[in-house]
Records
---
Amino acid sequence: MAEASEPSVLVVGAGVIGLTTAVVLAERGHPTTIWTADPPDQTTSMAAGAVWGPYLVEPADKVERWSLHTLQVLKELAEVDGTGVHIVSGIEASRSADEPPEWAKGLDDYRAAQPDELPDGFSAGVYFSVPAVDMPVYLPYLLSRFEAAGGDIKLRTLESLTPAFDQAEVVINCSGSGARDLVADESLTAIRGQLVSIENPGLVDFFSEDTGESEDLLHYLPHGRTVVLGGVAIDGNWSREPDRATAAAIVERCASVCPAIGTAKVIDHRVGLRPTRPMVRVEAERTQGGFVVHNYGHGGAGVSLAWGAASDVHELIASSGSTLTR
Ligand SMILES: Cc1cc2nc3c(=O)[nH]c(=O)nc-3n(C[C@H](O)[C@H](O)[C@H](O)COP(=O)(O)OP(=O)(O)OC[C@H]3O[C@@H](n4cnc5c(N)ncnc54)[C@H](O)[C@@H]3O)c2cc1C
């Protein structure tokens, strides 16, 4: 339970970044409230696939630290029932025999894929095991853990951070792509993603193509009874509506590698806006209104960075110490 000696905190946002940060702070004794424009199940985070892997995100040194921290936490959560986290094995493959991604090399079971494991048209690949996160289970798990630590959540849309400064000693800005308007960050853009969720036709392993800079992605990820198919990465597109032609193309790409996908029942279409800026922003700022710690702009890797970034937020509050005055 929260102890009154720790500064009170208001977290703006209830995606994976806001919820994870709120869990960390509430469990470390900060009286913590979340204000969010959307409930967790209507956020970009809900749309994510999701699998661990630092994708579309900088700066490299912090991303490596945050992602390794998060990898460890997700592995631990995979041991716990009801978290939505599980370990999945599979292949990331390439049609052009490129070097495998650096970040994959430290993963469990990492090895070169055998030629007979690769679909037609692919020349190289690597096999590894990695945490996968079923977001419709994981976000409610994070919310219940936050509430169990004494946290409170309210639906509220902010035009600026001013009302938040009146509510708590520290404001944490976890507004994702909303930060573009909320704190006038013009460096932030959306990279639109769309996925299709289907009934699992019996898949156990994931598959992902290294598609380089292409807008069209090819990956599928089983979560027990469902499989999530991807995807797209469309820079500067802010539409949150599923596009029918995009969905059909995603199914067709995945079925070209795994034909059983082509006849499986479609359950759901998911769309999210990857909040992308040149660098993820995790930093403290003392404004005229009050003390804010920003934690947004995690691009295509928020699920993979959340625990590490939240730990840095806690450090930034702790190191501000007694100077935390409004
Ligand atoms: C299709 C797709 C697949 C992905 N796959 C993966 C993956 O496999 N692995 C991975 O690590 N990452 C993945 N990502 C990226 C990941 O989903 C994002 O990095 C992450 O969800 C960002 O989380 P967030 O909490 O910052 O933003 P969001 O989830 O968008 O949450 C932002 C929150 O802020 C609130 N908010 C915004 N503005 C305001 C305001 N003015 N007032 C009050 N509240 C406000 C919103 O209501 C919301 O609650 C994927 C993304 C997409 C779209």
---
Amino acid sequence: MSISTSVSGGCQCGAVRFRVERLGRASICHCRMCQKAFGAFYGPYVDSVGLTWTRGTPKYFQSSNLVRRGFCGDCGTQLSFETDRWEPNIAIGALDDPRLAPPEVQLVFDAKLPYVDGVPDVPHRPQGEWDQVSDFYEAVVSYQHPDHDTTDWPPQSPPVGDDPQGDR
Ligand SMILES: [Zn+2]
Ligand SMILES: [Zn+2]
């Protein structure tokens, strides 16, 4: 498989970048360890084949006797779930295009947080509240690595035009 058809990703700060030859089944895991690792409601992972770290290497937390979780030691982004038994799972949000990995299965369903199913119905922020904070967010200059490979990082000047709306 040529590199042009592989899938790239990396951490928020750009110190760790990776490529995988291909993605497998995507999942969300409700277990307490995934909640903690991501600081989130659940852990989104996708099976991968042919993982290569293309810039830097992750740090690891051995979260159990059988599993180690890779993350960026500089910015803390979760990157991988690795065992001796199968190829690494990749954190879906770390992909440059997370749309490539829509979840197909939910794991450890009995540990699901009770409000997760209600999230789509949570109201959007009212316009009046946005008006009070919009000057702050409109002044934000993103230092996040862009969603594609770069030859040099960090750049000499901040990237222009690479920060999608909503970056913090
Ligand atoms: Zn990082
Ligand atoms: Zn889990």
---
Amino acid sequence: MSTFPTSDSSTPIVVVEADPSVRSRLSMQLGERAIALESLDGVEDRFTSPFLLVLGPSCALVPGVTGAEGMLARRSDIGAILIAENLSTEVFQRAMRSGVRDVLGAPVDTGQLNEAVRRVSASLVTSSPNGSVGSVAATVPEDDTSEQGRVITVFSTKGGAGKSVLATNLGVILAQRSEGTVALVDADLQFGDIAVMLKLAPQHTIVDAVGSFDRLDVGFLESLLATHQPSGLKVLPAPLEPAFADQIGAEQMNAIIRLLRTFCTYVVVDTPAYFNDVVLGLIEESDDVLLVAGMDIPNIKNVKIGLQTLRLLNTPMNKIHLILNRANSKVKLEVSEVERTLQVKADALIPSDIVVPQSVNKGTPVVIDAPRSSIAKSLEQLADRFAPRVDAKAKKKR
Ligand SMILES: Nc1ncnc2c1ncn2[C@@H]1O[C@H](COP(=O)(O)OP(=O)(O)OP(=O)(O)O)[C@@H](O)[C@H]1O
Ligand SMILES: [Mg+2]
């Protein structure tokens, strides 16, 4: 079996696995940078600068999942990947929550392993070395069963699929239709571009919410939201620099969402194009997940993998809605073919239209910029699932 070249970075890769044959196979798959160890003993003291930690299947048997949680909580410069024999929801979630950045099923394929190493390496570069996640404490009313806003997360396992375009336009339409507050949260923490797409110059970002987590309440959170004047949509922007992304963990994100849903009618959430603990937490917390797929084979392949992962995590399939973007493209791929491959019926078809990039470049959502376009109409139709249309006069509020 050939070994794949890993990224050019000189970051060491520490492989921890009790079974000698599994250990040597993993280090062969990872190439020259791999340092194979039988256990985690002494690892933290031996490697004082950033490193990647590949935890073999024997580590997934340890109570608390990996035995590395303490070390991962102390050191944000360790990028951990867990390979688990039994990729159950419980293992997956506990691993993510204990600071592991990716979980792969055993036996792992070389390409998949090195792809995870590359992704985790990239996130290590953008993390601050001491940016440890603080303890969770916000004053969120627990399990308040009174009227709660609906949380709609827009997700895709493919970059550039159209998540942010969809999230901004849906947020704007819901804000125009709704009497109550509608919030849009940019949970693409490293490269979020909601503020740019809405031409906002935010005073505050989600980092401020997490920075003052102990005193986070409705009033304080409201004061952090930027207003998109044309629609009244309230926006919680992503950090201004990717390095701050690590300060926001899944528990903080979900606490913010739970607080938002206490005073918002709808909370729309935009996400990055991969699973991490923040995204998993959001999917769990959401009432609806709009899974966006573009109309090409790499898109469909990645979305299929995304769907499989969601099934594996026992995500209720009735809250997942498949949205096919650029669905009219003459790309020799039929909607029915895509639906058959994904084994899911599309809930909405959004056409491809040049007015989209034009509106993105203007910082004006297409539903405002070109309301008569076919894409604006299809976005309005998508919003019908969540909120009834109102007549023009009723839109005037605030
Ligand atoms: N239906 C469409 N028709 C034409 N262009 C589109 C359409 N949807 C999205 N685009 C274009 O594709 C680009 C990528 O869209 P968008 O930023 O929403 O994707 P994303 O999934 O959020 O990407 P990322 O994973 O990088 O966050 C946008 O700049 C937009 O111009
Ligand atoms: Mg985006």
---
Amino acid sequence: MSDSVSIGTLPPLGEVPPKMLAQVVRQDRLGEPQDAFRVEEIDTPQIGPGEVLVAVMAAGINFNNVWAARGIPIDVIAVRQKAGDPRDYHVGGSDASGIVYAVGDGVENVAVGDEVVIHHGYWDPADPWVLSGKDPMIAPSARIWGYETNNGSFGQFAVAQAHQCMPKADHLTWEEAAAPTLVGTTAYRMLHGWKGNEVGEDDVVLVWGGSGGVGCQAIQIAKVAGATPIAVVSSPDKGEYCVGLGAAGWIDRTEFDHWGIPPHWTDGAGQKAWTAAARDFGKRIWEILGERRNPTIVVEHPGEATIPTSIFVCEAGGMVVICAGTTGYSAMVDLRYHWVRQKRLQGSHGTNDPQAYAYNELVRAGQIDPCLGRLLTFEEIGQAHQDMDAGRLGLGNAAALVGAPGPGLGGKAG
Ligand SMILES: NC(=O)c1ccc[n+]([C@@H]2O[C@H](COP(=O)([O-])OP(=O)(O)OC[C@H]3O[C@@H](n4cnc5c(N)ncnc54)[C@H](OP(=O)(O)O)[C@@H]3O)[C@@H](O)[C@H]2O)c1
């Protein structure tokens, strides 16, 4: 007889089985996500002081565990082992909705039975940087939960720090609630977290990948702040999806071919051609707005392919804020435009508590749609990451059912 319960079921509240089922990545199968993930029965993780054990009802799918499955740019298991963690497996998953089953010493903000979602900002509370009151997401101990840490949401029980737990929106199903928190809180920090360039009603916000995870949340967060979001997409159906979320219009990036590192500044003819193409791209923004206004914030994540264009079209004093380099890391910055027009290229990563809580309140108030697209089974988690890597996962965010007995449950009607 198995020591774990079946997927789609829960043990009685507060009773934790010794084993659990999890989608496990191991070092001897790092590579294609469809092969790297495998369902295994493993020990249910233990919690320590300040930690919470959550029975996962649904898990959101994010790009970070594509990287974990491939072991690129880092082998997360090796990195943890080097730091003294003996575990030879990775259970990822940075988005969860679930029910609290146990709390560690000192936990006061949640109790057994609470319905929660989990944000992905994780740090050592004893880190001197954190204790000094500075932004903990910049601390040396800051980690992305369920990517750099183990026992994320791709197992029946996840371990989180208590401060990561936030109340689940009552009106959302388990799968809707599990879908947006990582990308949403990331987008919130990008748009609200950088003093001097916080989004406001005078801003035009250009959002790359508007129909993707970060993009669909960034459009809505900008709109709620009164700004004018404009999406960049690769097809008309994606563009119209973004308009439905509040974008003023969209640009089809497939109509342009000036991507990647521009010709060197000593190549006059090459520079002229590149600048003309970037200008044409910028003109599309003016056409959408009906006036000559440039984006004051550009939400970036493709990186190498798009950074030169992002910086080119960004308004003087504006900010290109970047949370990834999906197309590559060697982005080129033409310093002439950068310093003379006093633009800002700002890295942004994860979330801190106030940013996550503020975002979650927007979700709870129904002001942000989680944009659940594909709904998956627990067994499909590996293939879902494969599809995400290939750009085939569909519009918005995706989630997999774990403990929830079926779709459509957990909301007001469920
Ligand atoms: N640092 C953090 O805390 C953090 C948090 C969340 C996500 N991320 C990272 O952010 C990135 C995006 O995540 P996501 O969840 O939004 O992924 P996603 O749902 O797959 O969306 C990515 C979007 O990028 C666009 N895209 C793909 N190739 C492109 C190219 N060559 N040029 C321009 N756009 C391109 C696609 O839209 P079109 O094809 O329609 O253009 C796609 O919708 C990932 O690398 C992820 O790991 C980082």
